[in-house]
Design goal:
The protein has 362 residues and is of the alpha/beta class. Helices cover 37% and strands 11% of the residues. Helix 2 links the parallel strand 1 and strand 2. One of its GO terms (molecular function) is oxidoreductase activity.
């Protein structure tokens, strides 16, 4: 597990590297906003070396956040892109087209059109009813899985042009390392059946599919893009007090968060970890400085951290499932459930769903 000292040391080196272009989906509140604030703090005196796209629905929250980060890091570029419903693939496509246009029209100083880090935290309250979207996808499954893969596919050309020596980084924030009990005869590929639909089953299906799909993408984009799925821990945010939650839960949460303060991850610590995930500790497949040196030793990256193990327990494997401190699992993810065709089945299902929704722009 990376220590806090390691994390902070790594963050201090970021402004000395190439300029960064960041996209934070779900970036106007909660973990997305905490991540933006840490980027602002890290680049406080860096001049024009950071551009951040904040994608979200709430313009008023975005304005408050923009005021904050611009005052902290006035030399950085901050752009808000308003989304209507990120569970809709058409809305995802619209946002991606906007980012592409901005990058092509006015690349950040020091490079061409690109994205160096893509953060995705869009979600719906797990206690809220999750009906189908107009495109026929379950809202929660779309936000946590399908729309996130859509963002990746749409933005791959920009991610390929990252200047980072460890490749571009894609960070999906939800339930990395959380593996529920699964029947090997009935793998959780696709959405949960209606009779079993719930908070746990959604997590089971999303985490399982994301693990295998990220492994496939890491191999497909070896040397170019790193894929990270993180469980951020219990982090306070506006979703807990959303009006879509039952009144009893909103009341209970106000009391519970006081009692559980010792256990929860603070917004500041969470933000620091999120930014750290874009470091050389989690490189694209084949770019790990921590590769074996031929003598059985593993080198660290340039910040002095060991290169992380992937979900396949390969050092620098390119697809990572990590916990709230950026710590990876001690064993292969879903070790007892791996079958020769599992990755292919997840890939075919996911691409079939996305191709069934018209308009994918790559």
């Amino acid at each position: 597990m990376p220590s806090r000292a390691q994390i902070h040391a790594t963050l201090t080196t970021l402004p000395t590297g190439p300029p960064l272009v960041i996209a934070i989906i779900g970036g106007t509140s909660g973990i997305g906003s905490y991540t933006a604030k840490v980027f602002a703090s890290v680049y406080r005196n860096a001049g024009v070396k950071l551009r951040v796209y904040l994608v979200g629905r709430d313009a008023s929250r975005a304005e408050a956040l923009l005021t904050d980060v611009r005052s902290t890091s006035p030399g950085s570029e901050w752009r808000f892109l308003k989304a209507n419903d990120l569970a809709m693939m058409s809305d995802v496509d619209t946002v991606c087209a906007q980012i592409k246009r901005y990058e092509e029209e006015e690349p950040l100083k020091g490079g061409g059109p690109r994205i160096d880090m893509l953060y995705m935290s869009q979600a719906f309250s797990p206690l809220a009813p999750s009906g189908p979207t107009k495109e026929g996808l379950d809202t929660q499954m779309s936000l946590l899985y399908y729309s996130r893969i859509r963002f990746i596919l749409n933005l791959t050309p920009l991610l390929y042009r990252s200047q980072s020596p460890s490749g571009a980084h894609v960070i999906s924030i939800f339930a990395g390392t959380m593996e529920d009990r699964i029947d090997a005869r009935n793998l959780p590929i696709g959405p949960p059946p209606p009779k079993k639909y719930g908070v746990t089953s959604v997590r089971t299906h999303v985490s399982f599919m994301k693990t295998y799909l990220f492994e496939a993408l890491a191999e497909k984009h070896a040397g170019k893009i790193s894929f990270i799925h993180i469980y951020p821990g219990l982090v306070d945010g506006p979703v807990f007090l959303s009006h879509v939650n039952p009144l009893w839960f909103r009341i209970l949460w106000r009391v519970a968060k006081v009692l559980m303060a010792w256990y929860m991850t603070s917004p500041e610590v969470c933000g620091h970890v999120m930014v750290f995930l874009g470091s050389g500790r989690y490189p694209a497949q084949g770019l790990g400085v921590g590769a074996d040196d031929g003598k059985g030793n593993t080198k660290g990256d340039k910040e002095g951290n060991d290169v992380a193990f992937s979900s396949m327990r390969e050092r620098g494997g390119g697809a990572y499932a990590v916990g709230q401190r950026g710590d990876e699992k001690k064993e292969v993810s879903y070790a007892k459930l791996r079958q020769s065709d599992t990755r292919d089945r997840v890939w075919k299902h996911t691409m079939g769903v996305l191709e069934g929704v018209q308009g994918l722009t790559r």
